[in-house]
């Protein structure tokens, strides 16, 4: 039985699907389907819950908060699971009353990975599409939504006005701290994104879960697919090194599959399972530490 994501002071969205629909349809609509000037219309009452989500996100995602969450979660001591156990665990996030979709997480992940496979990409790319949202199990470890999903951004330096709802950064105490509110903040020019702390969420978490198993382009896709200010808005280049700039094309290659692969047709898991069994066995251990 699926469990609904309830709305509290820390959970402004009815379900995570609300945020995904906002990103896909409002912030970054399918190419040629909406005029550029219409991408960021903040005035629609239908998105009040999304505005509240980002208010909480921008208020609370401080440098100290991120470092504390890294210390709490990145030792990966919450539980060990097979890939199928992780999916079953994640499926408890699906709300059976959601009128917009009846696809569970397995089916959503399959739609992403199958779109990648249809286009003839490498098998590790297919696996990346399948796994890219598994970090959302953070919600089931008690994390509020604003610390799991949403566009990511560097903490410890000046916030870009190209991050969605930048006005809410005025609420963040780091914006008033001289240590954190300059162009470089605690970082050095060209230090490389691997040395930059991004706002806490499922991307960074899953990167650490998978970093010993997948090739470097896959890890960039996982770690930075929500870092839209970088891969869509060309911000924060001053923090990048040559390797980041080389890998950026892989993140951009992944992004359309993440946003635009959803459709109402359910993948046939019984037919697809043997392929994925072999794929998991090729790249992943029997149990993965989360």
Q: Structural class, please? A: mainly alpha
**Outline type:** globular
The structural domain count equals 1
Average pLDDT for all residues: 86
Please outline the major beta sheet: 2 strands, antiparallel
> Tally of extended strands?
2
The helix/strand series, from N terminus to C terminus, equals HHHEHHHHHHHHE
Helix count equals 11
Arrangement of strands in the largest sheet: 1-2
Helix content, binned percent: 40-55%
Describe this structure in words.
The protein is mainly alpha-helical. It has one domain. Helices cover 42% and strands 1% of the residues. The protein contains eleven helices and two strands; from the N terminus they run H-H-H-E-H-H-H-H-H-H-H-H-E. Strands 1-2 form a two-stranded antiparallel sheet. Helix 5 runs antiparallel to helix 6.
In terms of topology, how is this protein built?
Elements: H1 16-27, H2 48-60, H3 63-73, E1 80-81, H4 83-90, H5 105-118, H6 123-131, H7 202-210, H8 216-224, H9 228-231, H10 242-260, H11 269-283, E2 288-289
Antiparallel strand pairs: 1-2
Helix pairs in contact: 5-6, 6-8, 7-8, 8-10
Brief overview:
By secondary structure, this protein is mainly alpha-helical. It is 42% helix and 1% strand.
What characteristics describe this protein?
11 helices, mainly alpha, disordered N terminus, 290 residues
């Amino acid at each position: 039985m699926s469990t609904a994501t309830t709305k509290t002071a820390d959970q402004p969205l009815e379900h995570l699907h609300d945020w995904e629909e906002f990103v896909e349809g409002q912030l970054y609509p399918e190419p040629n389907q909406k005029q550029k000037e219409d991408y960021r219309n903040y005035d629609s009452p239908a998105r009040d819950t999304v505005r509240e989500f980002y208010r909480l996100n921008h208020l609370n995602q401080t440098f100290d908060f991120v470092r504390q969450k890294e210390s709490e979660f990145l030792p990966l001591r919450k539980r060990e699971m097979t890939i199928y156990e992780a999916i079953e665990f994640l499926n408890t996030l699906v709300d059976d009353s959601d009128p917009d979709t009846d696809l569970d997480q397995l089916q959503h992940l399959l739609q992403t990975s199958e779109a990648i496979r249809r286009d003839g990409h490498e098998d590790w790319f297919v696996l990346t599409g399948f796994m890219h949202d598994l970090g959302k199990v953070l919600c089931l470890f008690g994390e509020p939504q604003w610390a799991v999903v949403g566009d990511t951004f560097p903490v410890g330096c000046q916030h870009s006005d190209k991050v969605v709802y930048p006005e809410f950064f005025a609420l963040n105490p780091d914006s008033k701290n001289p240590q954190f509110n300059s162009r470089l903040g605690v970082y050095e020019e060209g230090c490389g994104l691997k040395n930059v702390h991004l706002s806490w969420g499922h991307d960074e978490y899953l990167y650490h879960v998978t970093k010993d198993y997948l090739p470097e382009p896959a890890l960039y896709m996982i770690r930075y697919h929500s870092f839209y200010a970088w891969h869509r808005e060309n911000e924060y280049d001053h923090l990048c090194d040559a390797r980041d700039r080389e890998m950026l094309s892989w993140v951009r290659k992944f992004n359309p599959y993440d946003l635009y692969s959803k459709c109402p047709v359910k993948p046939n898991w019984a037919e697809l399972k043997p392929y994925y069994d072999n794929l998991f066995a090729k790249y992943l251990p029997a149990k993965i530490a989360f």
